[in-house]
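Sequence in, structure out.
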Amino acid sequence: MLDGLGEAEVRDLGALLATLLDGLYQGSGSADRMCRLCDRSACTPDGVECPVGAADRAAARTAAEDGAGTDHG
């Protein structure tokens, strides 16, 4: 599907999709809701960080710093 793209374009697309997924997470506030059918090995090959998981961890850190709890792990 991405065969027509060069390395830089694939990298740029990955960055754009990560930003999109972060925004979708911010709208739902639940990694479990977004990723209930996640296939981690397909989504994060070669140790790539999951953008939804990263957004979830960042939200949890922010909530902890603010002294509030989160309900999404």
